[in-house]
From TrEMBL:
GO annotations of cellular component type: cytosol
Name used for this protein in its record: Pca operon transcription factor PcaQ
Pfam family, one: HTH_1
Gene: pcaQ
Annotated InterPro entries: HTH-type_LysR_regulators (IPR050950), LysR_HTH_N (IPR000847), LysR_subst-bd (IPR005119), TF_PcaQ (IPR012787), WH-like_DNA-bd_sf (IPR036388), WH_DNA-bd_sf (IPR036390)
Source organism (scientific name): Paracoccus amoyensis
C-alpha cells in the first residue's frame, strides 16, 4: 500500500460519498470545504485516478471511485473493529476466554501465547484447561470452553466443530541420556524395553500405530498407555522407558538435554495442530485477540508450517 495514503484521505472520500455533498462532509468532519476538497485531491493524485465527479447535480462516483469505495469502507470498518476490541480489553473484567490446550500445546505454545496476550490486552482473563482430545472437544461442544488448540482428531471427534490449521507437528520418540538404545537407535529395538505408549483416546495414537506397522514393529508388549506429560517426563528420566509423545510436549526437555530424541524418521506421525471452535459460535473480540497472540507466538517459536524434527 502507498504509505502516502492516510486515514483522513479514506475518511474524507467515504464521507463525501455518504453525504453526497462536499459541504455536508466537511461539516461532519469539522473541516472547511476547501480543506476537505484538498484532501480528496491529494487522494486522487496518490491513486492516479479521478474518484468523484462534482457538478450541480451533486457528487458522482467514477468507475475507479466505485471500485475503490468498497476497499476504503472495508479498511475503515476493520480499523474501527480493532479499536473497539482494544477499548473493550481495557475495561476491567470486560473480556474472558476459556481455552482448552492439548498436552503439546499446553507445554510449548501456551506459555508464549499467554505472554503475548498480556502484552496486547492485559485485562483479558484467560481460563486454561488441558486434557485429552476427547475430553476437551466434549467441553467445547458443551459450551464450557470457547476454543481448543490441538491436533486434528478423527472425523467422528470433530462433529459440529470447525478446525483452522496453525502448524504441523510430529511425534517424538525420546529416552533418558545414556539409554542403551542410543548405541543402535533402531525402532525395532523398542520391544526390548518398557514403552510409554499413547492411550486409545489420544489423537496421536493412529499416527504412531501407522509408523510401527510401516517399520514392521509389533505392538510393544510392555507398555504403559498414557499421554500424561507430567508422568512421562519423570518416569522416562528415571528408567529405561521409551516414550512416544508429541514433539511439543518434550521440546524444552530435549533442548536442555534432559531427554534425548531418537534419530529416527517420524514423518508418518506428522499431523496438523490448529484451532477448534463450535461451528455455530460467533467470533468475539477476546478470541480475535487470543488468535492474534497465538499466531505471533508461533512465529516467535519458529513453528510456522511444521514442527522441525531437530527440536
Amino acid at each position: 500500500m502507498d504509505r502516502r495514503i492516510k486515514i483522513r484521505h479514506l475518511q474524507a472520500f467515504t464521507e463525501i460519498v455518504r453525504r453526497n455533498s462536499m459541504k455536508q462532509a466537511a461539516k461532519r468532519m469539522f473541516l472547511t470545504q476547501p480543506a476537505i476538497s484538498r484532501t480528496l485531491s491529494e487522494l486522487e493524485e496518490i491513486v492516479g485516478a479521478q474518484l468523484l465527479t462534482r457538478d450541480r447535480g451533486g457528487i458522482g462516483l467514477t468507475p475507479q471511485g466505485e471500485f475503490f469505495l468498497n476497499y476504503a469502507q472495508t479498511s475503515l470498518s476493520a480499523l474501527e473493529q480493532g479499536l473497539a476490541g482494544i477499548e473493550q480489553a481495557g475495561r476491567e473484567g470486560a473480556m474472558q476466554l476459556r481455552v482448552g490446550a492439548l498436552p503439546s500445546v499446553a507445554a510449548r505454545l501456551m506459555p508464549e501465547a499467554v505472554s503475548e496476550v498480556a502484552r496486547i490486552a492485559a485485562e483479558l482473563r484467560l481460563t486454561i484447561a488441558d486434557g485429552s482430545h476427547g475430553h476437551l472437544t466434549g467441553m467445547l461442544r458443551a459450551g464450557q470452553l470457547d476454543l481448543v488448540i490441538g491436533r486434528l482428531g478423527e472425523p467422528e471427534t470433530m462433529r459440529d466443530l470447525s478446525f483452522t490449521q496453525l502448524y504441523l507437528e510430529e511425534v517424538a520418540v525420546v529416552v533418558r541420556p545414556g539409554h542403551p538404545i542410543l548405541d543402535d537407535p533402531d525402532l525395532r529395538r523398542i520391544v526390548d524395553w518398557p514403552v510409554i505408549y499413547p492411550a486409545p483416546w489420544a489423537a496421536i495414537r493412529p499416527f504412531v500405530e501407522r509408523m510401527l506397522i510401516t517399520h514392521q514393529v509389533p505392538m510393544p508388549p510392555r507398555r504403559i498407555e498414557t499421554v500424561s506429560g507430567a508422568f512421562g517426563r519423570v518416569h522416562t528420566r528415571r528408567s529405561d522407558a521409551v516414550w512416544f509423545i508429541s514433539a511439543g510436549v518434550v521440546a524444552r526437555e530435549v533442548a536442555e538435554g534432559l531427554l534425548v530424541r531418537l534419530p529416527i524418521a517420524t514423518d508418518l506421525t506428522e499431523g496438523p495442530v490448529g484451532l477448534m471452535r463450535r461451528a455455530d459460535a460467533p467470533e468475539s473480540a477476546a478470541s480475535q485477540i487470543f488468535v492474534q497472540a497465538v499466531r505471533r507466538s508461533i512465529e516467535l517459536l519458529g513453528l510456522s508450517d511444521r514442527d522441525s524434527a531437530a527440536d
